[in-house]
Design brief:
By secondary structure, the chain is of the alpha/beta class. Helix content is about 35%, strand content about 10%.
Length: about 325
């Protein structure tokens, strides 16, 4: 068996081009204040170690096809569990994001032109992993005319060409100021689920999502759903950044009013000492209360819990 270190995400070994931590966050509008000591994680925050033959097999397939996963790039705490189920969330359009969000561990830098062969490589990896439900996300590509929308559509097309029964979920950026151009790209290549995460409450946007706009993200979900009503729409929040329960409920209500069908709520976990600090660990009971609220106002499906992430058990979310 190959050594596990051979299958790490390549970007972790090139800090001179893939900026993270202090180097990445040096130019954001609100500086991150490091907290010492950090809040101690409660007993209900537990993750599986990313080891084992299945984990190595998934990483090998990603390296073979020159693909990236947000699981690795963003240091997702569920990587071990998901890779051991032979699932991964693919991250297209490279491994360098044009933004510097201080909650995220994806590297910042100057991206390369999109790999025109990536849709075919992705379809081959989906086939190798025998996935019946695939989740595709991307870095922000504010440098592209359509913010990367056509590349998403090309990936959908290649996967459909290989297997029409594979369900496809896309987790897209906000397509800043290029929403109408982006919408046209999906005309002939629709996903089964269109997902765009609001991430946090509007009061914290400048601090947490520099470059993004709360109302614009809401409108993106509404515009897509209005244009393609048969496609399920989905969004998610990470909690524990200083928001109140009342603010979260307001965001959930806003999502419902903008025709969102599915919702995920999870606990924010600080990737490093340089990232935004966790202000509060919500209890499982608080997550249950928020889920009950979302269901009462009409969400078709809600996944709410400390370790929930947008694509965590995504196939089961769709089945329900």
């Amino acid at each position: 068996m190959s050594d596990f270190s051979e299958h790490q995400a390549p970007s972790r070994s090139t800090p001179e081009t893939h900026l993270r931590n202090r180097d990445k966050l040096s130019r954001i509008p609100i500086k991150v204040e490091t907290t010492t000591p950090l809040l101690r994680k409660p007993d209900w925050i537990r993750s599986q170690l990313p080891t084992g033959s299945k984990v190595t097999a998934v990483k090998s397939i990603l390296r073979k096809h020159q693909l990236h996963s947000v699981c690795e790039e963003a240091a997702c705490p569920n990587l071990g569990e998901c890779f051991n189920r032979s699932t991964a969330t693919f991250m297209i359009l490279g491994d360098l994001c044009t933004r510097r969000c201080p909650f995220c561990d994806v590297a910042h830098g100057r991206p390369q032109p999109p790999d025109t062969k990536e849709p075919e490589k992705l379809a081959a990896a989906v086939n190798a992993l025998q996935l019946r439900h695939v989740v595709i996300t991307s870095v922000n590509r504010d440098d592209l005319r359509d913010a990367g929308a056509q590349h998403f559509a090309d990936c959908i097309k290649q996967i459909r060409k290989q297997d029409t029964k594979t369900r496809i979920e896309i987790l897209v950026p906000d397509f800043r100021k290029r929403v109408e151009v982006a919408m046209q790209c999906f005309e002939n290549n629709l996903p089964d689920i269109f997902n765009h995460n609001l991430e946090t409450v509007p009061r914290l946007y400048l601090q947490c999502r520099p470059g993004a706009d709360y109302q614009q993200s809401l409108e993106l979900l509404k515009i897509f759903k209005t244009r393609y009503p048969d496609v399920l729409s989905k969004s998610g929040l990470m909690l524990g950044l200083g928001e109140t329960i009342e603010e979260v409920e307001t965001v959930i209500s806003d999502l419902k009013q903008h025709h969102c069908d599915m919702l995920t709520l999870g606990q924010y976990l600080q990737p490093s000492h340089h990232h935004l600090a966790v202000k509060h660990y919500l209890s499982p009971e608080e997550f249950d209360q928020l889920a009950d609220f979302a269901k009462r106002i009409g969400f078709k499906y809600v996944a709410s819990g400390p370790m929930v992430r947008s694509s965590y058990f995504a196939e089961h979310q769709l089945q329900k």
